[in-house]
Amino acid sequence: MSTRPSLRTFIAHVEDLPGVLNRVVSLMRRRNYNIESLTVGRTAREAVSRMTIVLEADADAARRIEANLYKLVNVLSVEDVTDAATVVRELALVKVRADGKVRSEVIRLCEVFRARVVDVGTEALVAEITGTADKIDGLVDVLRPFGLLEIVRTGSVAMRRSAEAGAGVETKSFTPDDDGDDAPPARDETKAA
After folding, report:
1. Adjacent-strand bridge partners of 95
2. What is the pLDDT of residues 50-82, one digit of tens each?
3. HEC profile for the chain?
4. Pairwise CA distance, residues 123 & 22, whole Å
5. Among residues 45, 33, 39, 36, which one has the least CA distance to residue 11?
6. Can you give the CATH number for the domain in which 66 is found?
7. pTM for this structure?
8. Are both 68 and 92 inside the same structural domain?
9. Residue 54's pLDDT is what?
């Protein structure tokens, strides 16, 4: 029985090679999943990148997504952290109209949301905010009446909470085949290009 679709967050550790991002995104496209948020960056481990992927799926689809990601050659580990204790943050830059008459009020509102003003011009300012999607949405809502000129958001990054320290980069796991061969599947290096 399938559950209702909701936003799911996956963390994938991948080899830091050209084309890996394209393979992951192509997999989602072929399976007809719309990616809500995708962030990619380096990790503490050399030659390994970390992807945080947010998309809408039910529990059954989430299991299939995880399994399909594992099938990609350059994927080292995948974890659906939707129901785990995690810290999830976004960063946004918000450019808002703020001439001399309303600038102090706009700055005060930014301070309420713990946003930093990182650029000030004669007609506008740029605020930087880090937090949950709801917090960023709240700042955008209160600044909207002043005139939003531009917004850019990074998308979500997620990490298991410190109490959940076991998560990290591991190699692919495997399930023994019915034929009794307990060796992990051989990597086809020709697919890596």
Report:
1. 126, 150
2. 999 999 999 999 999 999 999 999 999 999 999
3. CCCCCEEEEEEEEEECCCCHHHHHHHHHHHCCCCEEEEEEEECCCCCEEEEEEEEEECHHHHHHHHHHHHHCCCEEEEEECCCCCEEEEEEEEEEEECCCCCHHHHHHHHHHCCCEEEEECCCEEEEEEEECHHHHHHHHHHHHHHCEEEEEECCCEEEECHHHCCCCCCCCCCCCCCCCCCCCCCCCHHHHC
4. 40
5. 39
6. 3.30.70.260
7. 0.78
8. no
9. 96
52 falls within a domain: yes
Domain-located, residue 192: no
183 within a domain of the structure (yes/no):
no
The amino acid at residue 112 is V
Q: How many CB atoms lie within 10 A of CB 143?
A: 23
Residues 33 and 81 in one domain: yes
CATH for 143: 3.30.70.1150
Residue 59 in any domain: the answer is yes
Residue 34: domain span = 6-85+162-177
Q: Amino acid identity of 153?
A: R
Q: How many domains does the chain have?
A: 2
